[in-house]
UniProtKB/TrEMBL annotation:
Gene3D superfamilies: Glycosidases (3.20.20.80). Keywords: Glycosidase, Hydrolase. This is Family 1 glycosylhydrolase. Belongs to the glycosyl hydrolase 1 family. The keyword Iron-sulfur does not apply.
């Protein structure tokens, strides 16, 4: 029997503005990565020059046979100075949306993907008393360009964003998987939830939800209670907050094992990816099942899943196994509406260019795009809507 996916299933790839566009000079992360003596090893610079080459990227998505593309609009470009909105930047992102629609691609638009305007950070960031209203004002500015958009992610990985707040305070780059990091700054987490709810009020009839970095927590023997407590602050509170949303974005890459004293290291003999994470494609199906159990009435959109590897054959292996787990979860009743691979391009991974997640290689000097065999394989899966596509 062929492992077919539901009708009208979204098959796509994803990216974010800061990681692909280049020269996001008004953002807080640009300031962080360019600070003399800072803790980030590499800077984004021109990134993938996606700001100018977005048409080429959309052509690649379409020509592969995918039907969806997730990208973010950049708050720091749209409102580089508080209260001063750039009509030119809003028009730019409107052109990207229209570019998707013209190519038959479903745009999945993210309003906040980790980066904020530098002025916002300097005014207290998410902990400022008027942070929610500032974000609501930005959303109101973006709303007119969202005509034809059916899926909007309000905030990308709020759990990770709240954990990053602690990371920046300590000025230490975490090399381990996110689920092993210290817990989120709860005040930041609460502020992000308030901003999310305000955004959903503004979006009204547009489908909206936020995306969560699912860590696929697994309890070691005798550590069930510790695992539940560990997972609550880092993941489950963010899932439960989406109970009334139009969808929930699942983003899964690996697992994190929890013992009585916290996160356990990756076993020495485990297969690893370029990020140092355990090669564990079953994480996707497990994360979907966990999310569906906590939110049985909320549709799921897989907004990120992929592997950092220099071996494209390994990328196909990982993705095939991840999709098999996803299909099994769907067969067992999970309401999953689509799968968006992370990432379309080999892009800037928040301080480093070394982890290559992309379906498409980007030459760092010329920005030439080269489609990898894994991209064509995924395109064949999408065209056939099954894990067993006919051979070309």
């Amino acid at each position: 029997m062929r492992a077919s996916f539901p009708n009208r299933f979204l098959w796509g790839a994803a990216g974010s503005a800061h990681q692909t566009e280049g020269n996001n000079v008004a953002s807080d992360f640009w300031a962080l990565e360019n600070r003399p003596g800072g803790f980030l090893p590499e800077r984004s610079g021109d990134a993938c020059d996606g700001y100018h080459r977005w048409r080429e990227d959309l052509d690649i998505v379409r020509d592969l046979g995918l039907n969806a593309y997730r990208f973010s609009v950049e708050w720091a470009r749209i409102e580089p100075v508080e209260g001063a909105f750039s009509r030119a930047e809003l028009a730019h992102y409107r052109r990207v949306i229209e570019g998707c629609l013209e190519r038959g691609l479903t745009p999945v638009v993210t309003l906040h993907h980790f980066t904020s305007p530098l002025w916002f950070q300097r005014e207290g960031g998410w902990l400022a008393p008027d942070a929610t209203e500032r974000f609501r004002r930005y959303v109101r500015a973006v709303l007119p360009i969202l005509d034809g958009v059916q899926w909007v992610c309000t905030i990308n990985e709020p759990n990770m964003l709240a954990m990053m707040a602690n990371m920046v305070k300590r000025e230490k780059r975490e090399e381990n998987v996110a689920g092993a990091m210290p817990p989120p700054d709860q005040a930041v987490a609460d502020a992000l939830l308030a901003a999310h709810r305000a955004t959903r009020e503004e979006l009204a009839d547009i489908k909206s939800g936020w995306t969560v970095a699912n860590q696929n927590f697994e309890a070691a023997e005798g550590a069930d209670a510790e695992c539940q407590e560990w997972a609550w602050s880092r993941e489950d509170q963010f899932l439960d907050a989406a109970a009334d949303d139009d969808f929930i974005g699942v983003q899964a890459y690996t697992r994190v094992r929890i013992g009585r004293d916290g996160a356990l290291p990756v076993p020495e003999n485990a297969r690893r990816t370029l990020t140092g994470w355990e090669f564990y494609p079953a994480a996707l199906g497990n994360a979907v099942r966990h999310t569906a159990k906590r939110l049985p009435a909320v549709p799921i959109l897989v907004t990120e899943n992929g592997i950092a590897t220099a071996d494209d054959t390994e990328r196909v292996e990982y993705t095939r196994e991840a999709l098999a787990g996803l299909h099994a979860a769907i067969t067992d009743g999970a309401d999953v509406r689509g799968y968006l691979h992370w990432s379309l391009l080999d892009n800037y991974e928040w301080g480093s260019w070394k982890p290559t997640f992309g379906l498409v290689h980007v030459d760092r000097a010329t920005f030439t795009r080269t489609v990898k065999p894994s991209a064509r394989w995924l395109g064949d899966v999408a065209r056939a809507n099954t894990l067993d596509p006919p051979h070309r």
